[in-house]
Amino acid sequence: ASGATLQDSTGELATDGKGAVTSGTLDTNTGGALAAGQAVTGSYSTPAANGRATFTLNSGALDYAAYVISPTQVYILGIKSGQLAVGALPRQF
Fold it and tell me: Are 89 and 74 spatial neighbours (Cβ–Cβ below 8 Å)?
């Protein structure tokens, strides 16, 4: 895999426990250019028996398969065409 520019994101999300990412902010560094405090909302599905769910941010701009590992840890994998993404969503509170 290769790309023109590496992108890293970090942030915090709030969910309602009913399938909605109700609020959050992301800081994104794309090749050294920082975009801080980006507002984010989205949705997620209930995990299937194998632990896989879907996770979408900003109305489909970022789509992921989410794998629920435990009540405090979720791993995500980008599933949108042309998107190479992997990450973790640890529960903080």
Answer: yes
Tokens of 34: 């920082």
Of the candidates 30, 33, 29, 27, the residue with the CA atom closest to the CA atom of residue 13: 27
Alpha-carbon separation of residue 78 from 16, 47, 92, 93 (angstroms)? 22, 16, 22, 25
Q: Where are the beta strands (DSSP E) in 1-93?
A: 7-15, 20-30, 33-39, 42-44, 52-57, 62-70, 73-78, 86-90
- The pLDDT of residue 2: 54
- What's the predicted TM-score (pTM) here? 0.76
